[in-house]
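Case study 2.
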Amino acid sequence: MAANGWKTITVGTALSWLMKIILAGLLPYEIYGGYYLFALAACLSIVVSLIPAMVERNYRIHLPLELDFLITSAIFLNTFMGEWLKFYEKVWLFDKVLHFYGTAVTAILAFMVVYSLHYARKLRLTLPFIWVFTVVFAMAMGGMWEIFEFWVDNLVGTHMQNGLNDTMWDMIYDLAGGVIIAVWGVIYVRYSHPDARRRLARPLGEVFGRGREVDKGNVPDI
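Prediction:
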């Protein structure tokens, strides 16, 4: 990095790497204390949080919307604050807020993927279909998370789930997060400036070899 390179680092990037460092710093203590399940979760969290940075570094694909920060913060809130600091037990609404936030981040990813596929001419879609796909994908990820919690509870005797009522409210918050992001996505596509839409679509446009078409605006409208 150049001498003045640090000056170009955004606040979101700095916070994202700080959260990664904190998660990594917990590992020795977790392993020494015998918290192996938590250590495994922290390792997986670090790997997942590094995916946006690895994609940008290895494929020169610049992801928009501060995805690295959004993904890392969702993982950090769940792993460090929720599990390690016991916010799930101490703060009544923390679980619900995090379900909403985590699903919203997932919905943003889903919207980016399906809209970029349309922009790269891999699919011909309508706005209602993009809306439905975003909501359904977000709900599917939320359902898979509930299955994971159920599996862990039965495997190691934890209490990640607190009965049917808790699970259903989690799914309702997942639905709310997916719907809000889907509505935002439709409004964004309908009313945003073409340059903003090209920035959103460019990452997968580059993956499919259509980055130049996206830059030139040679893409289908919805």
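The CA atoms of residues 2 and 8 lie 10 Å apart.
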